[in-house]
Structures are given as structure tokens and as C-alpha cells.
Amino acid sequence: MKVDLSEVRKIVNQAKTESLQEGDMLVNILHCVQDHFGNFIPPEAAEIVAQELDIPLSKVYEVLTFYTMFSTKPRGKYVIRVCVNLPCHVTGGRQIMETLKEELKIDVGETTADGMFTLETTSCLGLCGVSPVIMVNDTYYGDLTPKKVREIIEELRAGGDEK
Amino acid sequence: MALTANTILICAGGACISSGEESVKQALEREISKYALQDVVRIVETGCMGACSLGPLMVIYPEGVFYQKLTPKAAQEIVEEHLLKGRVVEEYLYKGPTGEIVPQVAEKLPFFSRQVRIVTRNVGFIDPKNIEEYIARDGYFALAKVLREMTSEEVIEEVKKSGLRGRGGAGFPTGLKWELTRKGTSQKKFVVCNADEGDPGAFMDRSVLEGDPHTVLEAMIIAGYAIGANQGYIYVRAEYPLAIERLNTAISQAREYGFLGSNIMGTEFSFDIEIRIGAGAFVCGEETALIASIEGKRGQPRVKPPYPAERGVWDCSTLINNVETFANIPPIILKGADWFKSIGTENSPGTKVFALAGKIVNTGLVEVPMGITLKELLYEIGGGSSTGKPIKAVQTGGPSGGCIPAQYFDTPVDYDSLQKLGAIMGSGGMIVMDEDDCMVDVAKFFLEFTVDESCGKCTPCREGTRQMLRILEKITSGEGTEEDLYELKALGETIKDTALCGLGQTAPNPVLSTLEYYRDEYEMHVKEKRCPALKCKDLTRYVIDESKCVGCTACARVCPVNAISGEVRKAHVIDNEKCVRCGSCIEVCRFNAINKVSP
Fold it and tell me: What ipTM does this complex have?
């Protein structure tokens, strides 16, 4: 993948001017950069962020690798986040995870060979009223059963967008 | 605003959206314009109405008729029947446990009628994207009162007098926190709203942010005035994209109306708010970790004191309150501390929003006065168990809390009573479990969570919780000894005393509380190698009841490891050596012939 570095520079400077306080925007900038590249931060882009903010690259990586939402590796077109907390667990969450692993033939943290799906876990999504729940990119799916999960995957595979 | 014959409030909370609110709304709009009703019927997308198990749902005014479990087809029928002909469509009304139809749930259904709504006073009633609807319900009146009539000391005095305690979990007196921050010596000060709601099973903050974002802004501005700050941050988790969107809208509207920015309402006072988005780290809900994250660093906690009131964001005095705490402020200012104190109990005045989840009929959000008993909350309001099996325990306070067994359900819900039981109020998540839930498994589950979320800075949390998890894994796989139970307790108590931050100090609570109340269950796992709830895979076996099995071969075909054998039309058998206990066979068996047993 070719990385357009001038674009990254623009993003960083844009974020700098929007922020009220100097120096507190690293996490925000990483969000912007990650959104720009789909859902990961390439090493070249991290270097630009370090240069523009005048901080060591190690500091950028220190932050980048701490938070689960940031990735240094390319992720699939659809990032599937499965809630693995107790409310989802007692209502059948483990089966949902098993079904996803089975359907996608990948483990947690992996991406399918066709680059379509990445499977991740997430902390509580706050939709416990309709548990078990998953989030596909920014879309929530609730009241899941193994059958519903298979349907969702099929729909996404068929080129449909998230609902 | 034009006069309309009907107003439809449709719930656009996260849960309803996930169950198809969008398509219902589109169907409504399509039908309404088909019959040219758009000038007399208004559709308002509100925040979460609380009854998540009934979604997608809507209320049609002026009658206040409550429709539930909607589909696009239902929307079409309701437009044709209700809106055009004035006939209520019974099919989509709420039906009580005995089948009785309840059209107006607000007065009739305990789930709604028993609520006292202060924090969620606007959630589900207004369009959260429209500042005027907030103003129409006395929004920003408290701010006007504060700026025109009160000194900052008077504001703090009122909050102190109200007895409001932090709703994030620990219950620290809010007024005192405000006073301490005001006394802070730094030149610059900050107000921070902790909206990093991460406790599993708690979602009231999300509902307030999505359903009534202006109340949080108003309270933060008031707090800024009281402590002498000119800038605020709202730290929201990235898992809540809708809340972030609604907050952004609210902030730009508030700026437009002059409630944020320079010289608010024509006074000398200036204040502005910025959003900071988390990136998936549970520990950031801890206030010092949250501050580090706002500063753009790894979200790791530090030793307290100094407390944020002294040294917070950029080492400046910082006031941190959570969303629900802030949402209490405008009503306290408008109606007074005495009114607030008349609700709830002496030491825990006001209300608390609880999130009911797990095996309970009415899942969702309820706001009730403090001091209500668990029994009232779970049975009268929550409708009791959803599985037909009795409720065994309720878990409160997420990974920092504990399990409260059914024999203590007469306990009033307030900060101090729950603490006495070894649980905590936490942020208000209540996860209901029945006899099919294994308490050892639940404890292990929370430990997995803490091990995963531990930031790694201090040893007791990083290593200690890992060791506890290892012991629990031993027990659930049938390798446990009685000594392990002793070790588990000793280790838990050590972590409690020595971990750096709140996350670590409370991490052993789920284990310690289940060890106390369900020791017999632990002992069964250890001594008899048996899991009475049939949850722990290594301690259960699958067997086919020969008298029920007709030999349809459905189970053998679905088994992923070919552990089931037998001839057609003859009883099958499961080879438990091969079986991975995935449960697929039970799912497909139409004769209920497959059972789990332990040992």
C-alpha cells in the first residue's frame, strides 16, 4: 500500500488548529489518521505524526500500542467486535463467538485471507438490553443467535453494506 | 413550531437502532407522506426510552399509546389505522404477563410508573438533536439562574447541601469535590466529564449522552463557574459513536446560542468544551488514567494523592464527575437541595439509574429512588426471571463488584448497604443470573476481563490477577484442590490491599464475594469434580437418552468432531472422549433426547 504522506501532514495540522489546548491531541490525531487509512496506522504515517508533533517515534508507538482500537496492521473491510462481557455471556455470547470463528475460519485478532473481515473482542458496548451484541465497524447488531450471525456475515459477504 | 394532530416519539437509542428502528422510521415517513399527513403528524427521534427488550418502540401522542416490537409492516398498519382512522392497533400494544393489553404504559406498567426521573427526565421525551426542545423543558434555566443570581460559593453550597454523591461508583460527595477543586491553587482549572462508561452491564451514561446531551453540557458549564474553570473536556469511549455524534451536535448548538464560548449569556464568564475520544482501554475510566489519556498519553493510573482536585489535567486542579452525576446538577439548582434530599435515603439522596440485563424480563434502564429494595427492583419493576427458573443472584458493579445471592434481596439499594454485602453500587449495572449460571465460571469470567484490561503498571494487578485466573482455570477444569480455595482468598485479599488503582483494588471482588456466598459451589468443583450449573465444559458430559432418541441422525450429522455414532432409527451414543461440548447436537435435536450431566 502506498502511503500519501502529505495527506497525513494535513490531518495532523488540521487537528492541531482545532484543538483548544496544545499538546493533548495525540490520541485524537491517531484516530483521524487511522480513519484516513481505513482502520490501521501504517508505520510511515506514525513517523509523520512524530515529526509534526515534534515527539519521539517511540512515544507515538507507546500510545498507539496501548489502546486496543488502534492497529499497526491492516484490518479487514469489516471489523467485527464481539462483546465478551458478562451480560452477553449469560445470554449466549460464547456461542456467537464460536459461530463467527467457524464462519470466518479465523481466530480473534486475525483477518480473513480475502481482507473482508477482522475478528476482535470488545469491552461492554452498553447494549446489554439486547444482548448478545456485536459491532461491525460503527453498526450495532443485537439480540443475536447463531442463525442471525450467519445471516449477517452472508449479507456482508454478498457485498451488502452494514445495515 | 406548527401545531400537529399527532406527535410520534420513536426511540432512537442504541438498542432500538440495533433492532431496526431506522427501517421502521422510514416506513412511517413513507406512509405518512403517502396519505399527505406530514403537516399534521410529527415524528421525533428521541433517546433511549429504557425498555430495551421491547424495541423498536414508539409512543403516539396526545393519547400516549405505546407500540412495541415494531416492524416496517407494523408502521404501515399503525399509520393507516391509528393515524387515519383513530383506531388503536392492538397487535403491537404491550401485553402484560397475564396477556392483558396495556395501551398507556406510562401510568400502568410498574416498569415506567415506579420510576422517578431526575437524571433521565428528558431522555425519551425530547429530540436530542434540537436544543430548543431542551430549552422548552427548562433547559439552561439553571445556568441562567447560576450566572444571574448566585455566587460560585453559593452554587457549591447548594450542591453540598443536596448530599449528591458521585454516581460513577465510589460515591464521593460531589459538593465536597467541587469545593476542593475550587480551593486548588493552580492558575488554570479544568472540568472533566467522565463518559468512559465501561462497566460491563452499565449503559445509563450512554443513554443520557445520546438522549439528552445538553444536560451534561449545562452542568459542566455550571461546574466551571463554580470552581473557576474556563475549559472542559468530555472523555467519551470510542465504542459509543452515536453519543459522540450527538455531543458534537449539542456543543455546536450551545455555542451558537451563546451558552458556550466567551461571555456566556452576556456575563463576564467564559467556558468552552471539547470532546476527547478514548480508544478502547477500560482502565481509562479510572480518573488518573483518564487524565493521562486526555493529555495524549498511555492511559495508565498513578498514585493518589495528589488527587485531581489538586493536580489533574496538565497538573492543574481538575474536577472530574461522571455523566450521571452531572445530569443531577441542573434540577438541584432549579428545585433546590431540600427537594433533592426529600428523595432517596439520608446517606444516599436522590435517584440512581440502573441497567437491568441478563436473565430478566424487562431488560433496560430504570431510574428509581435510592433505598428501593433489590426485590422491588428485580421483581416488581424488572418483571422477574426471563427463563422461568428462579433468580439465583444478581451481579452489581461489574468487574469491581460482587454477586448478591437471592436471600439478600430485601437489602435496600444504596452505597453503604451494598458495600456491606461485599458488592458495590458501581455505575449501576445489574446482571441477573439463574441456576444455569455457574458462580465459579462467572468469577473466572470477570478475572479474564481484568487480566485483559490490566494496564500492567503495578505488580499486584498485573501478576496477581493472572495467578488468580490460573487457579480458577484449574478449578473449572477439574484439577482444583482445597488448598487452591485458600490460595485464592489470600491472593485476592493481598491484591485488594496493594494494587495501585481502583481497577486493581476491586478486581478480586467477584471472586471474594462468590467464595463467600457460594463456597459450596466451589467445593463441588474441587471435591466432587462437579459443576452443578453444567457450565464448566471439562466437568460436564453429554449423553443421549435412549428412550427418547429416534435415530434421526440429525445430531451425528451436525457434530463437528464425529463424536456421535449409531444406526438410522436406532438410539445414538456420544463418545465423550471425542466430544468438544459445543452444544450443536442439543440445538438440532427435536426430541430433547440429549442432556448435559455432571460429572
Answer: 0.89
